[in-house]
Amino acid sequence: MTNAEIGNRIKYARDLRDVTLDDIAKKVGVAKSTIQRYEAGKITTIKIPVVESIAIALNVNPSWIVGKSDDMELPSQKVPKIMQYYEQLNDIGKHEAEKRVEELTYLPQYTLEVKAAHNDHLDEPGELERMKNDLSNLKRPDTNT
Questions:
Q1: How many CB atoms lie within 10 A of CB 34?
Q2: 23-72 pLDDT, tens per residue?
């Protein structure tokens, strides 16, 4: 991967995370102009510890920055979109969001219906047919059928 491509990835992640040049420079411990030169592909070598520091500052996979992985997000840090929005709220907004999500759990069309089968009466007459009937009536949560 070329320096320009690495720089493009750094810039892309910085823009995506809404991190300023000043913020990342402070976190990495370099000058703002150094980050600008990385992004422009003007620095011919980037040391691994610097790449790792940039990745930590941007909360991205260091292997992605240097093109060794297609996964920008760290596997252990993939955050659901709802949590990204939630983290942008103030305390009042967070409280309201929690209430709204709780309200959704009361509506059957938004909740998973879990049914389990346990049968200690398999030897009883007609029980096998009743079990088959019960199974045919089960709904899959992902298809609503």
A1: 18
A2: 999 999 999 999 999 999 898 888 889 999 999 999 999 999 999 988 88
Predicted TM-score (pTM) of this structure:
0.52
Q: How far apart are CA 63 and CA 61, in angstroms?
A: 5
Question: The tokens of 114 are what?
Answer: 């879990």
pLDDT digits (tens, 9 = 90+) for 95-122: 999 999 999 988 888 887 655 555 677 7
First to last CA, the chain: 48
Question: Band of the pLDDT at 145, cuts 50, 70, 90?
Answer: very low
CA 39, 44, 48, 50 dihedral sign is negative
CA separation for the pair 11, 15 (Å, rounded): 6
Amino acid at site 33: S
